Amino acid sequence: MPQLAGRVGRAKPSTIMVIAQKARQLKAAGRDIISLSVGVPNFLPGDHVYAAARDALDHDSGQYGNNRGSEALQDAFLGHIEALGFSGYQRANVSMGIGAKQILYNLAEALLDEGDEIAFAAPYWTTYRDISDIIGARIHPLPCGPQQNYKLAPEQLGAALARKPKVFLFNNPSNPTGMVYTRDEIAALADVLVKYPDTWIVTDDIYAAMIFDGVGYHNFVHLRPELRDRLIFVDSLSKTYGMPGWRVGLLAGPESVAKAVTTLNSSHITSLPEVVSAAAVAALAGPQDVTRAKCREFAERRDVVYAALSAIPGVVCPRPQGAFYAFPDISVAFGKRHGDVQITDDVGFCATLLDAKGVACVPGSAFGEPRSMRISYTCPAAQLQPALQRITEFFAELA
User: Fold this and answer.
1) Helices (H) and strands (E) in the chain, counts
2) Alpha-carbon span 148 to 175, nearest angstrom
3) Looking at the predicted structure, is the pLDDT value of residue 16 above 80?
4) What is the strand order of the sheet 138-143 is part of?
């Protein structure tokens, strides 16, 4: 029979969703399961977002939309990024897609030919590697372990850029670690980036509204405006507004890149639906009370998670300052046993933790760091302390 295209063999199912699916199956079978696996914010947007969606339904045209995104959404996004310090951008500099994931996929198609190199720090969001594999790009992960707080150092970046990768992809705040770069750290990396003009810079900053401790959001282009001609900023409504199911991703960058992604949209998705666009405009341009309140709540949850993990002997967890993740180094458990089970790596650790204690976490190897695991602390509030207690008990039971 005819064969599938070779790229399909390079596509892999999301490790995160595999873990989440197993947790759902165990729960359906009657197990007491707490999932700390999926990065879903677990809150809903403000009432004004739903009001805008209902009004759009009442006045639905039933027509195709703009490949770039509705003009109202373009303007709302321009206002949003102006508040983030991106001034002087016009409609020609932006484009929208079905979530940040599709934006990143379109960017990969627009910027990378097969065999081109893309560099990014490890730990990394799993999708970075998955998309790169599918399109046939060469991946250059830059290891940033817990000993350096999971952050990229300027000398690492310089060595990577000396190889002349086509794209440098940067995530701040970080999924999976929750780490946030300070203004000085961003400035130091930006000083390196200006020395290598042949590399595109993509900043995945979808957690920019979820930053704690007064660190603030900073982008390379804020510190070195000359980078603007080759920097693409990626954003999303999913995490900031509790709208992952609405699937709205956005980018701002050079006009040529925005035009290329818009052209790809014309073949891929045509446009965002009218109702979704109206809701997105309301989220971006309307009251930000829900987002601010949730940021404070996640900061409080971070404190609880960090205190619990720091109290476990041998576990190392750099203190996250954004998003809603913690990424502890759990390698102290490797070589030990839990009951009759020998734990040899992060995958075995997470599988045994799920079976023994009913807590679902994602192995760090999914993110390029096999010494660790990712905890997403967006579960219902009443489940967080019990989950952390189960993890603490699990470590105490290792022999």
Assistant:
1) 14, 14
2) 16
3) no
4) 94-97, 249-252, 231-236, 200-204, 167-171, 117-122, 138-143
Alpha-carbon distances of 57 from 40, 60, 77, 229, 246, rounded to whole Å = 26, 5, 22, 39, 15
Statement: residue 12 has pLDDT above 80: no
Distance (Å, rounded) from C-alpha 237 to C-alpha 262?
19
Nearest partner of 73 among 97, 51, 57, 50, judged by Cα: 97
Digit-coded pLDDT (tens) for 270-293: 999 999 999 999 999 999 999 999
User: Residue 186: which of 152, 145, 214 has the closest Cα?
Assistant: 152
Q: For 6-44+290-396, CATH number?
A: 3.90.1150.10
Per the CB < 8 A criterion, the answer to whether 371 and 145 are in contact is: yes
List the beta bridge partners of residue 117.
138
How many of the other CB atoms lie within 10 Å of CB of 183?
13
| First-to-final CA distance of the chain | 53
Please give the C-alpha separations between residue 258 and each of 241, 261, 278, 281, in angstroms, as whole numbers.
24, 5, 21, 19
pLDDT tens readout for residues 225-276: 999 999 999 999 999 999 999 999 999 999 999 999 999 999 999 999 999 9
Taking only the tens place, the pLDDT of each residue in 22-39 is 888 888 888 899 999 988
- Single pTM value for the model: 0.95
**E-strand stretches of 11-93:** 34-35
Answer yes or no: is pLDDT of 15 > 80: no
Q: What pLDDT is attached to residue 217?
A: 97
E strands, the chain, are 34-35, 94-97, 117-122, 138-143, 167-171, 200-204, 231-236, 249-252, 325-326, 337-338, 341-342, 359-360, 362-363, 373-376
Contact 376, 38 (CB under 8 A): yes
Token pair 């405006």 is found at: 225
Quote the DSSP letter at residue 381.
Answer: H
Q: Domain 61-285 maps to which CATH number in 3.40.50.300, 3.40.640.10, 3.30.70.920, 3.40.350.10?
A: 3.40.640.10
**Residues ≥6 apart with Cβ < 8 Å to 265:** 67, 68, 95, 96, 97, 106, 271
- What's the CA gap between 49 and 243, in Å, rounded? 10
Domain ranges of the chain: 6-44+290-396, 61-285
